[in-house]
Write a structure and sequence with these properties.
By secondary structure, this protein is of the alpha/beta class. The protein has 2 domains: 200 residues, Rossmann fold, CATH 3.40.50.1170; 118 residues, 3-Layer(aba) Sandwich (Rossmann fold), CATH 3.40.50. It has 9 helices and 18 strands. Strands 4-1-5-7-8-9-12-13 form an 8-stranded mixed beta sheet, sandwiched between helices. A 4-stranded parallel beta sheet has the order 15-16-17-18, sandwiched between helices. Helix 5 runs parallel beside helix 6. The two termini are 40 Å apart.
């Protein structure tokens, strides 16, 4: 029996065509074989569907994440793999969110897209779709992960970040190697892929969006910090700090964080650097944050940090201590060595 792959179209550049006015509009997924005629020669079955509301990925929300998850959960036993066509701007957020939603995943979920629409001659979307489908349908190597495939590389989804708005190699995974590379053959790095789980699949779709991101910069004022930390009903904050997790040591800053933590707000420390890790207490500039209970994000990406916080707060709404503990642990391979 041939392997079966389901393509889920959510929107984004890859599925756009120009209308009579030259504006880009999404096309119906039943036209994908016209846009990528090579798919007619695939050695596996391909079916497709799309979200009820096709969106620019800049409009992505947890509601749409749940819609994608609903489709995959409903069709999970009917397909061997899934390819999600998605806009590039928030693809890393969606890949991270889906990775947390699907516990004990045993089938590949591969997100891909393009920098140029399929309707354009030089579109990178054709090769991205073909390779993503090859990976999702592969019988020899099953990847039980949510991944991003872009420009010849397969990355763990919750390790990925968008790095270019212009180049075809738009994504990178700075703190974890790629899982596969597509050349004449697709070379899989099996030792880097998560092990196949033995427990049943579990899908959780609840996200708590009462979170915020506070990015530090030289000259940031007390008023700015307090305006974020005193947001009504705030449950968690991800702080983008300097270097290996350093922040101002002024009393007003530490006191503001301490007050927020005492009020039950989770505070997570993530570095602004693309590569590297938060190392609490390596420098004096992070000792006070460690002392008052700021969570170390280690080498997690910003995209994974904020989606993980929303996921855990949604999954355990009445257990902040458990959420605090799980934030520091690797639950889907998003943090190294934890």
């Amino acid at each position: 029996m041939l392997n079966k792959v389901l393509i889920i179209y959510t929107g984004g550049t890859i599925g756009m065509v120009q209308d009579e006015n030259g504006s880009l509009q999404p096309f119906a997924m039943d036209r994908i074989f016209d846009a990528v005629p090579q798919l007619k020669y695939c050695t596996y079955d391909i079916e497709s569907c799309q979200l009820q509301d096709i969106i620019d990925s800049s409009n992505m929300t947890p509601t749409f994440w749940a819609d994608i998850a609903d489709i995959i959960e409903k069709e999970y036993n009917n397909y061997d793999g899934f390819v999600v066509l998605h806009g590039t701007d928030t693809m890393a957020y969606t890949a991270s969110a889906l990775s947390f939603m699907f516990k004990n995943l045993t089938k590949p979920i591969v997100l891909t897209g393009s920098q140029l629409p399929l309707s354009m001659l030089r579109s990178d979307g054709r090769e991205n779709i073909i390779c993503a489908l090859e990976i999702a349908s592969c019988k020899e190597v099953c990847i039980p992960e949510v991944c991003i495939f872009f420009e010849n590389h397969l990355y763990r989804g919750n390790r990925s970040t968008k790095v270019s708005a212009e180049n075809f190699d738009a994504f990178e995974s700075y703190n974890y190697p790629s899982l596969a590379k597509a050349g004449i053959e697709i070379i899989y790095k099996k030792h880097l892929i998560l092990p196949m789980p033995t427990n049943p699949l579990r899908v959780r779709k609840q996200f708590d969006t009462r979170v915020a991101v506070l990015k530090l910069f030289p000259g940031i004022t007390r008023e700015v910090v307090l305006s974020v930390l005193n947001t009504p009903n705030l449950q968690g904050v991800v702080i983008e700090t300097y270097g290996s997790g350093n922040a101002p040591t002024e009393a007003w800053f530490i006191d503001a964080l301490d007050d927020a933590i005492q009020r039950g707000i989770l505070v997570m420390n993530v570095t602004q650097c693309k590569a590297g890790s938060v190392k609490m207490r390596q420098y004096a500039a992070s000792c006070d944050m460690d002392r008052i209970g700021v969570v170390s994000g280690h080498d997690i990406t910003m995209e994974a940090a904020i989606t993980k916080m929303m996921y855990l707060l949604g999954a355990y709404p009445n257990d902040k201590a458990h959420v605090h503990q799980r934030l520091e642990e690797s639950i889907r391979g998003e943090i190294s060595g934890r």
